[in-house]
Each structure stands twice: as structure tokens, then as C-alpha cells.
Amino acid sequence: MKFIAPEFNKNGFNCPLCGTYAHMTWINLVNNSYYTKYHESLCSYCDEKSLWRVDGYRQNSSGQNVAKAELLFPDNGLAALPEDDMPEDVKTDYVEAAKIFSKSPRGSAALLRLGLQKLCKHLGEDGNNINNDIRSLAAKNILPPMVVRVADTVRITGNNAVHPGTMKDEDFDFVASKMFDLINFIVKKGISEPKELDALYELTPEGPRKSAEDQDAKSKINNL
After folding, report:
1. How many CB atoms sit inside 10 A of residue 44's CB?
2. Measuring CA to CA, which residue among 73, 65, 68, 98 is closest to residue 17?
3. Which end of the chain is more exposed for a tag (fewer CB within 10 A), N or C?
């Protein structure tokens, strides 16, 4: 399912606490019978509350005044939660990038590029060149070939985030937001799905499993 980023006063989005897309109930907090600038969004799935602060109002493209608000809790930014199987050192960069994304998409892109380099190493590459690593992973069928084109955008964005080049500052907001999805996708395809298949394979009775392994070994010898 497509990730819907949390947004103030929106009826539904992916909860920043449980990660599930769910309906949100909004509550304006009161102090001494006066409404405050603080609001809570109650997730209908996990029944937990996020805390928001309204910092003012701005006009949208239709000329309407809409609240300018910041998510205060949880302090993990507005990106999708990291995949469960994401390596810890990659997750550290991912979470930090999510926290600063709204304030610095450029800094967020640089952190995500670093996380992607580390992820490539976890998948067996040297981690020195993202461009080469992603192509190698695609050639080995660890990742689908289409991911190469997307990763090229990540590589370029990451380079320009550290060494300003041809990309404009306003480009980072859109592209960096997609980098979170890309890293989660690579974790899912390169780590989670193979692990799930291994677990499924281990459930196969030993006899048929050994027969399949012998068949595979014979096929490899015949192909030499």
C-alpha cells in the first residue's frame, strides 16, 4: 500500500506510531477552558495519540488559510517507518534522516545516501560506489532491474546534497521523500523476502527437500 505521510488535520494517513494507514480523530487540547495550539491525533488502529503544535497559518494554492503545524511526538519525522529487517546501522541513518527531513531535505538526502551505501555492503557489495553496487545487485537478481533507474536518482541526489551541483534546492523535497521508500523496498527485496523464502523452504519435509537439492546440484554440473 502507498505510504500516506502524516498531515495535520487530515482524516487518514500512515500512523507515525504503528505505521498502519488508519482513520485519525483530532482533539484540540484545552487549558483552563481555552483551546491551545496543541492538538492530538488518535489512531483508530493502535489507539495511540500523536502530538502536534500549530505554529501559525498560511495560504494554500486555493487562497485558503490552513494551519502550519509540526509533529512533536513521536519525534521520528514524517517518513514511513523503517522495515523490521533493516540493519541497525542503516536504520540509524534512516531514522535520523526522517527526523530532519521537514527541516533539511538536503541533509536528509545525504544521510539516506550513506544508509544506502551501508545497505549495499550488507547485501554483499563493497559499498564504495552505489551506482555499481545497485547494478551488480540487479545483475545477480537480488533486486529487480527497474530499481537501477530509481537508484540513479538517489545517487545523484546524494552527491549533490554533499557537493552542490545541477539540482535546485526545491528538488530535494520531492526526491528525498522517495528515497525512504527506495531503501525500504531494497530491504524488503534483498533481506526480508529471501528470509521468508528460507523459512518456507525449511518447512518442507526433509526427503523432498534433499531430492530438490540433489536435482539442483546435478543441473549445475550439467551446465558447466
Report:
1. 12
2. 73
3. C
| DSSP assignment letter at 166 | S
Residue located via cell numbers 483530532 = 26
Contacts of 57 (CB under 8 A, 6+ apart): 65, 66, 67, 68
Would you say 101 and 112 are in contact if contact means Cβ atoms under 8 Å apart?
A: no
Q: Distance (Å, rounded) from C-alpha 194 to C-alpha 85?
A: 11
| Start-end of H helices in the chain | 88-100, 105-122, 130-139, 147-162, 169-187, 193-202, 206-222
pTM for the model stands at: 0.73
Residue type for position 38: Y
**Terminal alpha carbon distance of the chain:** 43
Please say whether the beta carbons of 53 and 29 come within 8 A.
no
Residue pLDDT, tens place only, 184-211 = 999 999 999 999 988 887 877 777 667 7
